[in-house]
């Protein structure tokens, strides 16, 4: 079965434009569901023995505790996540913290410590099992800022670098076509793939809170970019062969 993509190219142009505008609109209007490695927060791992724990009970205790972590009558904990570790008698509590305007670093860290102490006290009082904290990680807000800046910079540099490579590799290969033509098409193609993937994920995360934008998501975006680069080079090479 042969599909005439060229004949239907305007339909595909329109579809690509709609998806790009939809994705950009989602990025500009919807709140980003950032993970704690982006916003800063805490992650605590707990062991339990001599019984079982109900994950719904744990979630309820976490939600009750976060309401008490306030600064100037404003809740500081913006999101929480609780999950069991498969195959082990362990569960993990993650809490993202919003740095309220005017709060000092000392007070902000103090609220993180208070959350850890309060939630641990709640868990140790459970009668269904003996719960102890085995690991605690405090993720600073500056780390999240560094990750975000590095991610944006990396993605931009990759698009620029591969566009320059295409311009160099395809220079003078086809009479009447400049290397800039290939480079610009490459840049637009890679930008489209990233924006659409990012935008659709933002929309999904708006309806499904478990879809976090974190370091794993950045890794996935780099993977998408890698496949897109490979496809772009193959397509460009085929175009060059057909036009010669």
From TrEMBL:
Any one Gene Ontology cellular component term annotated for this protein: plasma membrane
Family annotation (Gene3D superfamilies): Multidrug efflux transporter AcrB transmembrane domain
Keyword field contains Transmembrane: yes
Transmembrane region(s): 12-30, 151-170, 182-204, 216-236
Annotated membrane topology: Multi-pass membrane protein
Compartments where found: Cell membrane
Keyword vocabulary terms for this entry: Cell membrane, Membrane, Protein transport, Translocation, Transmembrane, Transmembrane helix, Transport
Positions of the Protein export membrane protein SecD/SecF C-terminal domain: 124-244
Keyword rRNA processing part of the UniProt annotation: no
Gene Ontology BP annotations: protein transport
Protein name, entry field: Protein-export membrane protein SecF
Gene for this chain: secF
